């Protein structure tokens, strides 16, 4: 646990030191759970968006993208259920005065049970070596079976209690499991109560005539209210999807773990509209497609797992999360949900407008069903950043910190480095910079020794360093250094564009999906 905390602190420190993420309004001591993306963070974030957007809209002929407004008619949130049901179960510790989500406390307890099961498996694997049959061990070992059966019982009970709004039983479960405040160890809890997560605001020139609005808590509703507009203007037949990237806002009870859970965050969502009765087939299809999207990044299959929901949202008939192994354990990264026809039917009812699709093959009109994929952009950023940040000990005994991001997502694709600030080297390097800047995000740097500059570029994840020396003026070649291997080779200046493009093109990622 201590190592996990230390590793996570390194992630947060590195993010700030190298211009990825800063506390918001830091000169005024910051704002709780709100962060700003710095110069390198903004580039990485935009590249993640591009990878998702291209995978959705460019690789799928039947998916288009929109950009809906953050402010929406207030009835939208009545229809969606957010006004009445967008709550989290809140619990306070009487001694520490700290506030927690009751369901997260229980889920964290279950995560510790899973950790115990995994430790038993790891010990057995070490004991039996190559002869170890993991599947048989997992299905027969009493300790592993016991830990996982207990997990299942706890989560099923919690899901049932939350579905029935039996908050007294949620508190009883916390007390029975002897769950303590993780910071102080106190078990002195208040009753559990519901807490609505939406931020309210006003629209209007005067306070008396202002309309009560909400900052959207999700981007999906902007897609649903535009279903007819998009379907009619794009002329797509079902099945087809609408994708969107945008900000959402939730007044989280406990916003924590850096950018993992924030009050202002960004979502990448796609709603896939399908004929009724086919939704579970497409649900399975999108689980597989989204899993491949993640694996194409090369972060390791062992760092992902599916988690099927015990407690379904009021609109869903199937739901699963793709979880990622963050520095603080496996947590939700993306959700895939079969939302049935809940959303479009609700908006049809509340708006009084007919929101249906005429299916020429079935020769009937109906309200489409929806399969949703929803991923937190900030969480995706954290998954990439935390996994790719590494400390390496080199052959000569020295060390380096390297951010081994997939090259297509790296904030800076190449750094142009004149060896010294004289003898015409900066001018020659600037000519290379001015030629390549139209194709790639590159930087020019001449301060400090070449070794220090290499280390700085490693730390921000730059795939290539291009060093201009005195020989460059004679033979028009430069030294090209590759980030991950640190291999250096002499290449002609005229070949740089082709070499860099081959490495950093989005094609490399998209072709693996």
TrEMBL record:
Binding residues annotated for substrate, in chain numbering: 101, 218, 265-269, 372-376
Protein keywords: Aminoacyl-tRNA synthetase, ATP-binding, Cytoplasm, Ligase, Nucleotide-binding, Protein biosynthesis
GO annotation (BP), single: diadenosine tetraphosphate biosynthetic process
Entries under Gene3D superfamilies matching the protein: 3.30.40.230, Anticodon-binding domain, Bira Bifunctional Protein, Domain 2
UniProt GO molecular function: ATP binding; bis(5'-nucleosyl)-tetraphosphatase (asymmetrical) activity; glycine-tRNA ligase activity
Database matches in CDD domains: GlyRS-like_core, GlyRS_anticodon
Keyword Disulfide bond belongs to the record: no
EC code(s) of this entry: 6.1.1.14
Catalytic reaction equation(s): tRNA(Gly) + glycine + ATP = glycyl-tRNA(Gly) + AMP + diphosphate
This protein's GO CC annotations: cytoplasm; extracellular exosome; microvesicle
Cellular localisation: Cytoplasm
Binding sites annotated in the UniProt record for ATP: 250-252, 260-265, 332-333, 376-379
Domain Aminoacyl-transfer RNA synthetases class-II family profile: 146-411
Pfam families found in the cross-reference section: HGTP_anticodon, tRNA-synt_2b
InterPro entries from the UniProt entry: aa-tRNA-synt_IIb, aa-tRNA-synth_II, aa-tRNA-synth_II/BPL/LPL, Anticodon-bd, Anticodon-bd_dom_sf, Gly-tRNA_synthase/POLG2, Gly_tRNA_ligase_bac, GlyRS-like_core
Stated role: Catalyzes the attachment of glycine to tRNA(Gly).
Membership in a protein family: Belongs to the class-II aminoacyl-tRNA synthetase family.
Record note on quaternary structure: Homodimer.
Protein name in the entry: Glycine--tRNA ligase
Organism: Riemerella columbipharyngis
């Amino acid at each position: 646990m201590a190592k996990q905390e230390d590793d996570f602190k390194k992630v947060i420190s590195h993010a700030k030191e190298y211009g990825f993420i800063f506390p918001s309004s830091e000169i005024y001591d910051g704002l709780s759970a709100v962060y700003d993306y710095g110069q390198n963070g903004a580039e990485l974030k935009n590249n993640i968006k591009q990878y998702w957007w291209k995978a959705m809209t460019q690789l799928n002929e039947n998916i288009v993208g929109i950009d809906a407004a953050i402010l929406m008619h207030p009835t939208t949130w009545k229809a969606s259920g957010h006004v009445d049901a967008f709550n989290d179960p809140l619990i306070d510790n009487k001694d520490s005065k700290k506030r927690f989500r009751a369901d997260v406390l229980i889920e964290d307890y279950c995560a510790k049970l899973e950790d115990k099961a995994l430790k038993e498996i790891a010990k057995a694997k070490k004991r039996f070596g190559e002869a170890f049959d993991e599947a048989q061990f997992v299905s027969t070992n009493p300790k592993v079976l016991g830990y996982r059966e207990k997990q299942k019982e706890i989560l099923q009970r919690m899901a049932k209690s939350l579905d029935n709004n039996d908050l007294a039983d949620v508190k009883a479960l916390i007390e029975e499991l002897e769950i303590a405040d993780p910071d102080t160890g106190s078990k002195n809890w208040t009753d559990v109560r519901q807490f609505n997560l939406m931020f309210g605001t006003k629209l209007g020139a005067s306070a008396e005539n202002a309309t009560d609005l909400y900052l959207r808590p999700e981007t999906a509703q902007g897609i649903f209210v535009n279903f007819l507009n998009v379907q009619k203007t794009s002329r797509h037949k079902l099945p087809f999807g609408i994708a969107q990237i945008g900000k959402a806002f939730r007044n989280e009870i406990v916003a924590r773990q850096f950018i993992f859970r924030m009050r202002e965050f960004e979502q990448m969502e796609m709603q896939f509209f399908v004929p009724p009765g086919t939704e579970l087939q497409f649900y399975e299809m999108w689980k597989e497609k989204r899993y491949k999207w993640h694996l194409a990044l090369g972060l390791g299959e062992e760092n992902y797992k599916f988690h099927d929901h015990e407690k379904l949202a009021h609109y869903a008939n199937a739901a699963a999360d793709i979880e990622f192994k963050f520095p603080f354990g496996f947590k939700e990264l993306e959700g895939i949900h079969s939302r049935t026809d809940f959303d479009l039917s609700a908006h049809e009812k509340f708006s009084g407008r007919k929101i249906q699709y005429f299916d020429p093959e079935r020769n009937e009109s109906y309200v489409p069903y929806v399969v949703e994929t929803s991923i937190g952009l900030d969480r995706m950023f954290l998954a990439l950043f935390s996994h790719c940040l590494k400390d390496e000990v080199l052959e000569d005994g020295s060390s380096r910190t390297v951010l081994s991001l997939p090259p297509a997502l790296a904030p800076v694709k190449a750094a142009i480095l004149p060896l010294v600030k004289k003898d015409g080297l900066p001018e020659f390097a600037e000519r290379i910079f001015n030629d390549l800047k139209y194709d790639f995000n590159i930087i020019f740097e001449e301060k400090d020794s070449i070794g220090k500059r290499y280390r700085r570029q490693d730390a921000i994840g730059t795939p290539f360093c291009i060093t201009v020396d005195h020989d460059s003026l004679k033979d028009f070649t430069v030294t090209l250094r590759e980030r991950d291997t640190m291999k250096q080779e002499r290449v002609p200046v005229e070949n740089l564009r082709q070499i860099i493009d081959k490495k950093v093109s989005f094609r490399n990622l998209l072709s693996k999906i």
